[in-house]
Amino acid sequence: MHRKEHEKFSAGDVRRVSAGRCSSRKLRTGWMAGLCLFGMFLFLTGCGKNPAQAGPKPSGGTTSKVESKDKSTSALPEDIDFTALDEDKKEQLLKTLVQDSYTFEGEVNDGPADRTDVSYHVPKICSDSAGAKEINQAIAAACEDVTSQKEDDYVGWIEVDYDSYLNGDTLSLVLTKSSNLDDYTEYYAYNLNLTDGTRMSAKELAQLLVRGVPTDADDFDDFDDDEDDAPLTLELQSGETVEAALLRVIRRAAAYEFDQSVRYMYDSDYYSSAGEAERQSLYAEFMKYRMQTLADDNITSDLPMYLDDDGELVVAVPVHVMAGGGLYNCELKPMQTIYQYDAASGRVLSGEDWEDRLEDAREAGTSGDVMNAERHDLELSFDDALFVNYEDGRMTVRIEQNEWTEAAFGVGSIDYGKEYEVDGVYKDYVSAELLTIMHGEHVVPTFVSNDGMIAYLDLYHGAWGGHFCLTEPACGIVNIEAIGEGNAGEIAAALEKNMFGSSDTFSRTVMGLYENEGCTTETSFDTDAGTSYTDSFYLGFDPNDPSKFLYQDACVDAEIYLNYEGRCTWLGMNGQGLVFCVEFYDEDLGQMHYSSFQIRRVEELNEKTDEWYEYMRYQHLGGYDLFGSDDEVRELSLAMGDATAADAAEKEESMSTGNLAVTGTFVDGGMLSAADRAAMIVLENDAYSQFAKLTATETLTDVRIYTLEMDFEAGSDDIYFHGTEKSSIPKLAAGQSIYLQLSFPGDTPHHGISFVDANGTPRCFSMMMSGFDGSLALSEEKAFT
User: Fold this and answer.
1) Model's pTM, two decimal places?
2) What confidence tens digit (pLDDT) does each residue in 544-581 have?
3) Which phi and psi (to 5°) does residue 651 adopt?
């Protein structure tokens, strides 16, 4: 039963693809960094939780609640043979099984003085089976905002409608709620096994696809007699479950769909007129949205999916985009969708357009000139030591040991002879070559996907960091049918720019960090003596030189502060985040360190406080373990600060002297003893206050605690502090501690300590929360006035 034509779903400002229908939606996100062309908005909402009842009629239209008179499973004829149903019988059965439960046609309020035409048709399945009841309850919950609509209310939806399909004994129902805001459509899909009366899961739907889905009597005959006309089947890779195979083909279709938006970006006037740094920044933003689209938490078995009239799988996939500032839901056919670059027309053809192109070529006798859209198994090798294999949709790398590989990869984390699985392989590839760049010093395995885009494998950073990831699609390269003598030089030059000519801010942008923003975390380590210590870490980029990556490790108790500077290289993406390799030089050991990790900026709603908060989700993948956390997934806090590499080096030097005479750290106030709490010096007691511990490393006398006010000396830029004494202690022995309760408003120090050290020298220190790692930082100052 088809209540609507596909054309009704073509979005006004979103392209319509032949594989399905699309609708746009605005998305709340904190990832935009300096691109004023695109806006960000909040999610639309509109789903209730309780089963719906027909409410008062909105003014200006007609409301009806229609219920099936047949309350039993007798809506299905007894002993029905689903293999014998022709199209007419299927249509008649669908009319009996699926009917309106609520309808409204008319006008509703759309603002103080506006009226909007709406059409609501809410379905129900006319059956008493357990699965039908479950589906009807889910539909009622999804449409409660519509069916309980009060007079002159407007809930944001201009159309609620549905389609139903019958394939064998599988009943599929797709419900759509369409808004006039951003041409957004919300999809709900339900599948019912009519034989046993159960609601079907995505796994059960996938199991049908493995066998193939005959749709009517003719298809059942074809299925038995003619393999060429048999329905499409879901092919399983070695060791793959049906659910994993289902998600793989959905992610593949989503990758093609998203990369068309990348293609449109490359073809835009804005991109053509932009400078190289601006192009790379725009590309970096697109790659973050691509990662969101292909992420494991976006490509799930909970996506609305159903079988259409042809027994083909249709899935409504949220595609994250920059245009419009959010996402759009797009119905994709993952088992059929092909985006194929056609050199003759210079276009990327998909679905029926591609089939028509093939048919025209056959009729003209030129089908041999048409690029084969099917995936090819590909093998690349170099110097009998490097082997890249692409087979059955999987890519692997193996590097054997010889003089060349020792020179190229020996400084890293590679295990010679090991076969590494390559991350980020989502599309189908039809051509591959080993290209050389940097005057022949680097070898780059390069792949052409069937939509005419380029993917490449950064062997060097992959081997150094101990993890390989395909970089796709390469920045700025499109309309490639195959790699040959005519275009190899141009492609190699573009790859060299991608790998070694990125702008200073590219890595920071693609990682999702703003200027002056970094990541902090802490790790506690046990010692052989039964004690423990805590290291505070910081990852970020130098604001004065954003191409410079900063990695810092501070242990306050041991007065150790290590600052490393290096380079961060983006490798690609996987289902968990964006993949990077970092490299930095350790002067103490006289060697380079390499580390690979996946990271993703996450924005979540705290349901208790109803506030949004952000953090970075991080996992170590290979090489040097930055945080000593093995491979566990951990949350990194986001910290703002204006610290530079020079500042870090100065702090490292000051802490390495061991001459601070006092150390400071934050502590958990709930873990303090009653005596410590009683002796605590309270400077502030508010919702933001924290507890600090100051420990003398030598005997101190005349210890005083202050609140500070910063000022400048007349005629100069020199800073000094006015101090208001809040507490004093005659003497602190070495190892003795005092506790403070205090807050840190603003970006300047508001608290200080003064004392006379063991050498009889008066000393003054300000106290701040570090912009590097969130630790308590002490900075020596001139005498407080």
Assistant:
1) 0.75
2) 888 899 999 988 767 778 889 999 999 999 999 999 99
3) -65, -40
